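Components:
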Amino acid sequence: MADVSRCQGRDAAGGSECRRRAAPRGRRDCSAHAGGSRDRGQLLLVGALALAVLFVALALLLNTAIYTGTLATRDAGGDATPAIEYVSASRSAGADAIRSVNRRNDTSTTDLRRAFVATTGRWDDLASHHRAVVGDAADVSVATVTNGTRIQQDDAGRNFTSNTTASDWTVVEGSGVVAVRSMRFTVDNSTLTSIDDAGNATAETVFHVVVDSTTGTTRTAYIYHNTSSGNAEVLVDDGGTETACPVGSVTDGTFVVDVSNASLGGASCRELGTLDDAEGDVSVEYGDGTAAGGTYTMVVEGHPTDGGVTLSELNPSGSPYWTDAIYSANLTVTYRTEELDYEATVEVVPE
Amino acid sequence: MTDDSSRRAGARADRAVSITVNYVIVLGITAVLISGLLVGAGGYVQEQRESVVREELSVVAEQVAAGIDDADRLAAAYPRNRSVRVGVDLPGRVAGESYRIQVTELTAPTNQPARHELTLRSAGTRVSVTLTVSTSVDLDERSVNGGWVVVRLDGGELVVATGDSSRTLALADPAAGGYTHD
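Structure:
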């Protein structure tokens, strides 16, 4: 560019080489200068272009970096929490349904099953609508139902003897009895045998429940009144170790021995909870049934129609009696979103 | 006039020399400056590219880990007859490069959750990012390309696999329960 301006400058002054010499030569010189300047411009142009490409690449990288930032704030994958909550809610609804069905229907196992499936279905319809609002598809269906037998005594004025008033008797036994749950006694405090030392409970005439199983330990719970402490107590013998738990509170002369909840009159008794941890062929026996009175209830896995369940010392109606019940059920829970497909079979066993 | 003529003649002789030298010097300096600028800027861009790729791979690795974590949680929550599939929608390329996700098992102490290394490596710049995940359910050792990835439970262990090309979970029919209700 400097050459071009110099050439033009001389022309303007009137003494230029271009004018004094032959015009064609001067034009050649000028054009030659102009050609050189174009070459130099090209170098700059190429450099500028290459730099421009680099800047574009840099801009693209900046774009990617910004996208990364956006990506980092996004939810990754499907969130597992709603699925787990739904399964948990289904489980709890299933347990409530079993309790409700057992309480309201005791005509036959078929009726119980039908009622349970209908109840679960109604819950599923409502719950899946709630999930559909957020775009998730959920479903609960009953896979299997396990028959059970509920054993109960409603007459609070009766002692814990058999239908023939036998003091030591077998409540339930047989190869079809696989497990026991929901064992609860509401004991009349005034009917208990009084002893002065918990160590004598096994020797004295004290009401006791024995849960025996072919594959586990035999566990026994003795219920008595301890004159030393002035409280009702339960002594749990897990086949070697004996632990005594005092009663929490006595209301209207009664207190609840809740084996499933491991509590005695509202007070925690951890060892009591192990009483129904029996599997295999389970049998439940009462000893010295005359030494305590009140009501009780329990559900065993197994039903007389399926065989292997002996309930001969219970009445068909009137205390103590047995009825059909649902022991447990398996629910198939499906939960699906755009990014999650979950299906699980959950076992529902009310406590 | 005579002085002017001789001065002009002298100047012309100098000018011929200076023009050549001027050309060489200007071209040389320009070439050096521009090539220096290009090399420097090119290196800078490459450096930034690697940095961006590393950054994005880290984010992607975290997302894969989150997907594995979700699947692990679901698989461990109710361990009976469960079927778990968690889709993770990852970018197919990072800064224009494809990448691969590699799962490698690490030895975990006894009675500790299984530990695995997630290594994400870009194809072009060979940048790799490693993340360690702990799962209560075992994780299969394998590698998949980035993109739509599905973490599924297969035979008691979690598998990180390439998802369906539709970028959605191909759903099976709902499992029919044993009983139906009205």
